[in-house]
């Protein structure tokens, strides 16, 4: 019998309660310590190998999408959006989408969505830490100014 190697999508993992972008396989092994053996198989389909995978995947841009009508249900996301924290990330866009629970879309340099992460259970610090970890750092303003004025 041949075994088929497949990997769950970001959405599949989210529906199982796993955040694929930051799930290390070593974390799956720890589930047994909490008598959660039945989750290990699905966890392994969503994780990244600790040693073989790059430590942190970086993305050129991110879009935080949320509906303002949902702010009462997600006060931590509202606090992040309304604070000065988003200004620390020039490559982050806040987009208001009617009826949408909060998500972060991660894009490559060509503007193509490469990953989507549900963030409804996150607090303001978690959002900021995630963006610090997964967003490429923008060049400082002087460098960008010089680049735009190149001949």
TrEMBL record:
GO molecular-function terms, A-Z: oxidoreductase activity
Pfam hit, one: Sep15_SelM
Subcellular location as annotated: Endoplasmic reticulum lumen
Cellular component GO terms, alphabetical: endoplasmic reticulum lumen
Residue ranges of domain Selenoprotein F/M in the record: 62-135
Listed GO biological process terms: 'de novo' post-translational protein folding
Family annotation (InterPro entries): Sep15_SelM (IPR039992), Sep15_SelM_dom (IPR014912)
Protein name in the entry: Selenoprotein F
The species this protein was found in: Parnassius apollo (Apollo butterfly)
Lineage: Eukaryota, Metazoa, Ecdysozoa, Arthropoda, Hexapoda
């Amino acid at each position: 019998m041949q075994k088929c190697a497949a990997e769950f999508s970001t959405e599949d993992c989210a529906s199982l309660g796993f955040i694929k972008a930051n799930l290390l396989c070593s974390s799956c092994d720890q589930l047994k310590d909490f008598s959660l053996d039945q989750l290990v198989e699905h966890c392994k389909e969503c994780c990244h190998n600790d040693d073989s995978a790059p430590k942190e995947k970086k993305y050129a841009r991110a879009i935080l999408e949320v509906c303002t009508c949902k702010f009462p249900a997600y006060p931590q996301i509202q606090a992040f959006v309304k604070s000065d924290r988003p200004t620390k990330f020039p490559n982050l866009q806040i987009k208001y989408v009617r009826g949408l629970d909060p998500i972060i879309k991660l894009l490559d340099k060509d503007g193509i969505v490469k990953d989507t992460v549900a963030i409804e259970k996150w607090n303001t610090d978690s959002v900021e830490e995630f963006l610090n970890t997964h967003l490429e750092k923008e060049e400082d303003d002087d460098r960008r100014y010089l680049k735009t004025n190149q001949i």
